[in-house]
């Protein structure tokens, strides 16, 4: 069989096709909607590559055309204002932010291009799937899949094998699990709630 994009051929089917259901990130989010704004407290736990904990205070407008959100990280004593992800193409987004570190007494800009596709011969799908359990209680799962499609080739009279097959590769994982608790007025809960509503958002 042909070797993978990195030049190293997997030695077993377990290495070629692997699905990891142990999330590396666990988030607990509390949200309160006030006068057209959403105030949130995020508790973020990371177990890979090292054990870390972060807390964030988030403020952003509820309007669909919102263009910014404010974040404060009390542990690192950082303040940031981030733009929403601006679509450049169908699969490419741009995000811009400005931040200030009170520890370092420094202010700087950052920008980031994100896509759901991979590179170097490997294709990637990254999605967020949400599940509404009840009014004010959501679960969100962030998952990804890196894959190389199977390929069959052959040749006659060229010195190459008559039949050659690359069985492809799939590496999938459940990266993040989020529990989101949102406090809204009873009127808004009745209007917005649909039992076990599912949707997917490509990131």
TrEMBL record:
InterPro entries listed in its UniProt record: DUF7781
Domain DUF7781: 12-183
Protein name: DUF7781 domain-containing protein
Pfam families: DUF7781 (PF25003)
């Amino acid at each position: 069989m042909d070797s993978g994009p990195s030049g190293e051929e997997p030695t077993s089917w377990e290495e070629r096709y692997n699905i990891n259901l142990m999330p590396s990130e666990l988030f607990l989010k509390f949200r309160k909607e006030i006068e057209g704004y959403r105030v949130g407290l995020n508790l973020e736990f990371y177990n890979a590559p090292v054990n870390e904990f972060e807390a964030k205070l988030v403020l952003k407008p509820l309007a669909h055309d919102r263009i910014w959100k404010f974040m404060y990280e009390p542990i690192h004593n950082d303040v940031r204002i981030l733009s929403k992800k601006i679509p450049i193409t169908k699969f490419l987004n741009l995000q811009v932010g400005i931040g200030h570190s009170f520890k370092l007494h420094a202010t700087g800009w950052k920008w980031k291009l994100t896509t759901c596709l991979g590179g170097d011969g490997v294709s990637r799908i990254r999605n967020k799937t949400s599940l509404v359990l009840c009014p004010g209680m959501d679960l969100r799962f962030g998952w990804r899949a890196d894959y190389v499609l199977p390929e069959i080739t052959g040749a006659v009279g060229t010195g190459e094998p008559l039949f050659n097959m690359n069985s492809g590769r799939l590496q999938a994982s459940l990266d993040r699990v989020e529990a989101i608790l949102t406090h809204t007025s009873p009127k808004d809960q009745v209007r917005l709630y649909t039992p076990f509503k599912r949707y997917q958002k490509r990131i």
